[in-house]
Design goal:
Elements (H helix, E strand, L loop, with lengths): L1 E5 L4 H12 L3 E5 L13 H11 L3 E4 L6 H6 L1 H22 L2 E7 L30 H16 L3 E6 L2 E2 L1 H4 L6 H10 L4 E4 L3 E2 L2 E2 H14 L3 E4 L6 E2 H12 L5 E4 L19 H5 L8 H12 L7
Parallel strand pairs: 1-2, 1-3, 3-4, 4-5, 5-10, 6-9, 7-12
Antiparallel strand pairs: 8-11
Length: 303
């Protein structure tokens, strides 16, 4: 089996390359700076030429324009990558018979939390819930979902959330976990918001889930996050506890940062579609955090 990873130089792209390679697949990586397989998904001709030349059985698109504030400042670029780029790959996949696996975001939700009778708060969003993005990133990713599905019948669209993993810590900036551990090491206080709830998702666990859905999932839309949910403050506290470090942690609110971009206060996802097929292998978020820390060589609690 030949697998093409578009966005191979990114955090998830690196994890996916390792997971597919370990399964025996022939893995090809492509992105805008790739020495051998360069592609600009904003351009239909570039996407088509790449698929025509490589003829992969599965094409996984992890490429995205995903910085929240950059998306707000450059909505044309956000839609060029996240929406038109998805369409260009979908058209190329349909023409060459490649299955398209397209990564999307929990930020397609947020405007309309789902509260059911007897519940004290919102429940996690399912694939059947109506999206309601609050910002350009969410809107552009939702447009990309629709275009990918419209142009490539054999598609697997996967929404995920709050990703962290080794790809970031290896020279591409710091993820939230590493940032918290650095603050603790420097004896600096960590002031973390407690009014945004999501599901921290380890890229190592997500890569295994993406591979399984790519190979065995029926065409359609999937959620793939770790199990459960928490606020960013709760996540920070768990990081310090699992790493066995002392840190000064205090609560704050989103409004204190005067952020220029609207963010959903609640955007946890339920992996309902994968679970219905017996394909949901995502661990609880705290178990995934522990596995990531062990992979990084950070002393786990009780070790």
């Amino acid at each position: 089996m030949r697998v093409l990873i578009v966005g191979a130089g990114g955090q998830l792209g690196g994890e996916l390359s390792a997971v597919f390679s370990a399964s025996g697949a022939e893995v090809l990586g492509a992105d805008r700076e790739h020495a051998e397989h360069s592609v600009d998904i904003r351009d239909q001709a570039s996407a088509t030429a790449l698929l025509d030349r490589l003829r992969p059985d599965i094409t996984v698109n992890t490429a995205a324009f995903h910085q929240l504030e950059e998306c707000e400042r450059s909505p044309v670029e956000a839609f060029a990558v996240n929406a038109a780029g998805a369409m260009h790959l979908a058209r190329a996949c349909a023409a060459t018979g490649s299955r398209l696996v397209h990564l999307s975001s929990n930020y397609v939700f947020g405007a309309t939390p789902v509260v059911e009778a007897g519940m004290a708060g919102p429940r996690p969003y399912r694939e059947t819930d109506r999206p309601g993005p609050l910002n350009v990133l969410g809107a552009s990713k939702l447009a990309g979902e629709h275009l990918a599905a419209a142009w490539c019948p054999d598609h697997v669209i996967i929404r995920t959330a709050a990703l962290y993993g080794v790809g970031v810590s290896r020279g591409r900036g710091r993820n939230f976990v590493d940032s918290m551990l650095q603050l603790a090491a420097m004896r600096r206080p960590a002031k973390v918001i407690d009014d945004i709830v999501t599901t921290p998702t380890w890229s190592g666990a997500l890569a295994a889930q993406v591979r399984l859905l790519a190979e065995k999932g029926e065409p359609g839309l999937y959620h793939a996050t770790c199990g459960g949910c928490c606020s960013w403050h709760d996540f920070a506290r768990a990081i310090f506890e699992e790493a066995g470090v002392d840190a000064a942690l205090t609560r704050t609110k989103t409004a204190a940062f005067q952020a220029p971009v609207r963010r959903p206060a609640y955007s946890a996802l339920e992996n309902a579609h994968a679970a219905a097929q017996g394909l949901d292998i995502m661990p609880p978020w705290r178990d995934a955090l522990r596995a990531y820390l062990e992979q990084r060589g950070v002393r786990a609690r009780g070790a």
